[in-house]
Every structure is written in C-alpha cells, then in structure tokens.
Design goal:
469 residues, Tachylectin-2, Chain A, 12-stranded mixed β-sheet, 4-stranded antiparallel β-sheet, 2% helix
Length: 469
Amino acid sequence: MRKQLYNPYLPLNEFVPDGEPHIFGDRLYIFGSHDQANGTQFCPLDYVVYSTALTDLADWTYHGISYAKTQDPDNMDGSHRLNAPDVVPGNDGNYYLYYCMDLLPQIRCAVADRPEGPYQFHGYVRHPDGRILTEFMPFDPALLNDGGRILLYYGFTPPFPIHGEYDKNSPGCIFTELEDDMLTIKGDLIPVIPAKKFAVGTSFENHAYFEAPSIRFFNGLYHLVYCPIEMNQLCHATSERPQGPFTYRGIIVSNGDIGLKEEATAPIANNHGGLIQINQAYYIFYHRHTHGTMFSRQGCAERIYIQSDGTIDQVEITSQGLHGKPLEAKGRHPAAIACNLWGKDGAKKPVFGKKSTGVPYVTSEGNGAYISCVESGSVIGYKYFSNAQAIQLSCTARGTAKGCLQAFSVLDEKPLAIAWFEETREDWHSVHFDGSFQGTFALFLRYTGEGSLDIRDLFFHEAGEMECK
C-alpha cells in the first residue's frame, strides 16, 4: 500500500512546531522551532529543515541542521533557545532566516544560498542610524517578499508579566519594511493587530493579539494569521494594504477545536503556523501538544477554503491532514495519529512545567509512538477513515486494563465494535474487536474498566479475515 499522509505530517519521532510552510521551486519547505520528546522547555534544539515534492506530500526529506544555536554570536555557549523562525527570499537571490532567542529583545538574521541552508549569521534588524530594533517586544518575526518589498511583522503581548514595564504597553503586532540589506528598517513601526488593552471597541476585541504572526498575500488581500490571547487558536485578519488597516476575520483552527466545540477535543496550549497554497488547494499549518506537556509539539495541517471575500471558515482538526480526504481503512495505522484525546473529565490544558495526569496522551519509546494513560472514560478519536467494503478492527496494546474498549463512529450512539481486556499484559499484543465498519467514518475508542492501557497500532482487516486466522 502506498504511504499515506497523516497528521502530524513529519515522522512521529520529530518535533518541529511553529511551522512556516513555504514553496521554493517545486518543493514545500517547513521552517519551525525544534522541540524534543518529553520536553521540559520550548525550543531547546537547533533548527532543522524538512521538504517534500509538491507532487507527493507524504515523502519528506530531512535536510539536517540548518542553523545551530551556537552560531549566534551572543549564544556561543548554547544557553539561549531558538524561537519560532521565518525564512524569506531576498532580492539578491539568497534566503534569509529571521529569529529571536528566548525573550532577548532583538530580531536576528542569518543567510544562506539555499532554502535548507546551511545558514550563517548576518546581523540584527536595526534602525537606519544603526541602533538595534528593540521596541515593542521583538518576537516571532514573520516576513514576505511582496514583489521586491520586504515586509516584516513581529510582536509579543502576553497576558502575564514578562519584562514588567518594558512590555506593559506593547501595542500588539507591529509592521515595518526592510531595505535590500535585509537588516535596516525603513518607515515607521505601525501597530496592525491590537493587544488586549488596545482591542476594546475594535473587531479584535474578543481575539486580541498574543504572538505568532504569519503573513501571506492571496487574491488581492494580505492575510495575517496570528495566535490570540486564548492561545490554542490561529485567527486571521485581512487588509488590502500590508500596513493595514486589518479587519478581524475569524478563527481558522484551534488545536482543541475550541470555536467549533464547547469543550476541547484535545490538549490545548499555544499555537503557531501559517497559510500556504499547494496545487490549487489552501492549507493551514499549526501544531499539537504531546507527551502530556506543552514542550513536545508536532506540526499538523488542515485543508481550508478561502471564500471570494477572503473569509475562511474554521476547520476541525483531523488525522488526515494534508491528505485532504479520508484515510484508507486498510492495513496498519499508528495510533499516535489520533486527533482527539480526552479523559473522563475532558481534555486538560497542559500545565506549564508539569506533566498531565488523568488524560490519555501521545508519547514515545525509542523511535516509536503510542497513546498512553488510557483509563476509564478516556476517548481517542480519528477523523476520518474510509473503505467501501465491510472491515474489522484490531489494535496492538499493553497494560493493566480489565474492561472493554468500545469503537464508535458517533459517540454515545450504539458502538460498532467492542474489544475486551481481561488480564495484565506488559508485552505488546494484538486485541481484536467484535463488529465491523463500512463507508466513510470517524473512529472513536472509549475505554471503560479498571487499570490503564497503552495503544500502539490500529489494524483494519477485511471482514471475516480475523476469524479465519
């Protein structure tokens, strides 16, 4: 069977959040920060780059480290972390990587002659008189080469104190332009999306700016994606001019479906991503949270539809992602592609610096990933699968569970299949479900019973095949 394309789109042992998708030549590139499994802080690793041919979005190439944190002259000891970056082609044919470190108030730049690097330090974004740009919390730079104009957006306005008076009056997302040297700003620093205290009475009042701008130009409009103070969402605003005025246009995606559902369908925390057009279709990139923590994030994507007036309806999070259609319900699928995960008390927001308890979560062991901490009341969801024929399901599991795992297409309706667990098994073993599926369906697994369960794989079989073995 041809390799299928899932969410997350990169290997399950890779953690590249804050993903900015860009097309250079005939390839799609992903530029993001770099987390790790069981992380204890954001962005601890060096930048890496992945790319894939536009004709096969499932076949990703790992290009290796593009820029090491110790290459920055202020970070030769590696004590600072590389935050969410962006890459833009310059007018000289080179590629420019923009980034910030921790909460140091500078935007830094590196340069390479290829999108994948390697990049070399180039300098700091600065005023025409040589002063380094430090105004209004430089953070999360986003760039666009707009027909030769180099547009820069940035800003960080947390709803909690960071630098005291320094960021207290930061107006929100800031716009400016760069000269062809890719370092010197020209023109004013213009607020384009307001922070909470400045959003009252504007279209942004209920979704004020927090961080994570991303800028694109489609069909005569500038689309500015950002993370609002609710954190789990990516919203967008549009304008006919890069400097605004921008108008709030709605939520595009939430990593817990907030906005579509009253309760979160997955762990919710910060979010960052961008828009891209691939082969006449549009997608929003974002990230999910794994390992029961805020610090092990993985890139995901969903297909979206941009209306003629520039609006984008919110899309649900799925397991199919860039595939753009239901996954083929045939053979093996990793359990860790679950898009919905919650416990008996719902989906918990990871607590900063603490491991989540009482909820199932994606975790890893070596290069493999699985769902852990499946306890009574836990729900694991997948959207969507399809098979024209009647099929049956089995899973690879282990744990202390004594109870049943019910499989639904629609929760709280009659289960379509049930698997029983009757004894503790520390080894991975196959468990079969009684019942079958057919057509296009969501798959929800709900455990009821004692103990806990880990689930590594799902297997779809032709109806009757399991009974014959």
